[in-house]
Here is the input.
Amino acid sequence: MNTDHLRAFVLAVDEGTFDSAAALLLISGSAFSQRIKALEKEVGQVLLTRTIPVRPTESGEQLLRIARQTILLEDEARRSLGFRGSSPNFRPTITLAVAVNADSLSSWFIRVLQEAATWDDVEIHVHAEDQQHTDELLRNGTVAAAVTENPAPVSGCRSQPLGTIRYWPVASSELLDRHRGDDGEVDWARVPQIDFSVRDATQRNALARLSATPAVTHLLPSVQAYNAGVGYGLGWGMIPESMLPAGVLEGEHPDLVVISEIGVEDVPLHWQHWTTTTPALDRLSAAVQRSAERFLNG
Here is the structure.
C-alpha cells in the first residue's frame, strides 16, 4: 500500500475532516480525496464515513493500526537515514499517540513529558481516558501505547507492570455529619459522591463494599476540580495518595477525613504498546518505566 495514501487516511481520522487533513499535507482537497479513493479502491472497502467528523468504518478500524505502524516505521527509517526532503532543514517528525488516565497524567506521567521535552524528533499526542478503558484505544488503533488497568496484552501488543496507584476514600467531615442518623451512623445512600466521568467506576466499586448506591452523583472531569470538589464538601471521592492534602492520612486535617468503612483501593497499572517497536517508541517506554518505578507504589 502507498504510504502517502495511508498517511492521508490516518490524518483524516485524527483531524476529523478532509479539508483539515489536506491542509496539513499542503495539498488540495481534491488531491486529498483522490488519495483516500485510491486506498479504498486498493483494499476494496470503504474505509471512512463521509461525515463530520470523519470516522473509520469497521474495515477502516481494522486498517488503522497497521497504517499507523507503517507510517511510524517509515518516519523512523527516513530520520535514521538523514532524509531531509526538499528542504535542508527538514527532518521527519515522529508522532507517538498514547492513552493515559487522568490521575497518571496529573502526577507521575508528567515526568515522562519532562524527558520528552528533550527530544526534538518526537511529538507526543496524549489521549486522556479512564484506566479501565485506555486499552480500547490501543485495540482500535488510535494509539501506539497506553497506561491501562488491564494486564492482559491487547492482540499485537506487549504488557509490562508499572506499579499501583493507591486511592483513599475522602470526605469533608461536615458533609458526613449532615448525613448521620440519630444512631450516629452515616446514611451512605444519601451522601453525594463525585465521579470523574460516566465511565469512572472507582467510587461505585468502593461503595459496593457497603452495599449502598448514592442518590446523587456529581461529574467533574478535571483532576484539579475533582479534588477541590471533595475538599469543598460537594461529595466524597477516591483520591490518589500522592494528591492528598497534608494531614489527611494522619487525621490532622481541619476538615477532610479518610472514610475507614470503605477502605483503600489499589489500582494496578500496566504499560501496553505495539509489539512492532521503533527507537522512538522504545525511548518512550523506557521513560515510562523509569517514572513509574520512582513514583508508583509496588
Observations:
- Residues 86-90 have pLDDT under 50 and may be disordered.
